[in-house]
């Protein structure tokens, strides 16, 4: 099922017209489809039903509490990368036993918070971190369940900013060092090395980097078991690509076709950490055109009321997002335009030289595939209040985060 669909000239999210939502809550506005989020989690749940598994939604992709509640209702857990994300996860009612904690720079306070909360495991990224976790676990009289995040030196062919498993990246532990650290963890009364973790980067469009990662993990798990280190959980990370433009990503079933035999032969539980795949195509950013600006040099700019503070992916990664008027203008003429924001930076754009239906000031555009790394990466640059967030479920919609006010901007100053 497609959750964003055109009915005659009007674009709908599930059963609700996006133009109607824009009239009701204003723009810029992030709109998410609950049905789409449920369906995407369901695809993974179905694909992996043959093996013990936990779907740990990567909270950094979209951390709105209502979205997290929905994820919890679907039986999924969370992959977190900060104390703030742990706070959100617990507030939303996510089961701590389904939470794993990644990231290269966990502070002592964050580690204490994780230990206190009884999460499933901490994914450790360095020797210094492992030793700090051991010391803090000892201090609090607990045993810390850990996985080591290895760096298998695999190129996942993503943007250089979002590849994470090459040897020059800051993430993970080299294979040689990992064996020694696992032994250190095995011999420490306050560490329980239950897992092995790897995350290759994002978005990944082919299965072969994962196949290579599974090979590396299978070999390492064998080595570790021979050393009396019983790895029970294999966390293969996230990064599953989605269709932004004309990509043809693999499906959860195809991924499971690769993963399930490995997991069965290794006799362990599987964790996957999808973020983008769950929410990316479940959300759009609505923005109104404030001005149409035609330069004497023949350039047309649609200047919108959303900017790079609302959605930074195009300037940050050169990302493509589809752009569609929520109501198709009559006439059918198309023009080539740059779709830009109001911010005082030339990097403030959503699309360049894009062929679009001819629009006029006041028209509402939907920036598609904006559910992941959209609002969660947004900020207040140029003292711009952040956008309202809306969740659509069938024929209903509700505001799940109010638009910020000017007063919100100066809180705490
Ligand atoms: C960002 C991240 C993910 C999620 O990546 P997606 O592309 O959103 O699936 C998963 N695991 C870790 C460790 C991450 O940093």
β-strand number: 20
* Cα shape: elongated
Strand % is 25-35%
CATH class of the largest domain: Alpha Beta
Query: Which structural class fits the helix and strand makeup?
Result: alpha/beta
Please, how many helices? 12
Report the CATH superfamily of the largest domain.
Alanine racemase
Report on the biggest sheet.
9 strands, mixed
Write the CATH fold name of the largest domain.
TIM Barrel
Q: What level of helicity do the residues show?
A: 25-40%
The poorly predicted ranges are none
Number of domains: 2
CA radius of gyration is: 23 Å
Distance between the termini: 47 Å
Ligands bound to this protein structure: pyridoxal-5'-phosphate
Query: What is the typical, i.e. mean, pLDDT?
Result: 96
CATH-scheme architecture of the largest domain: Alpha-Beta Barrel
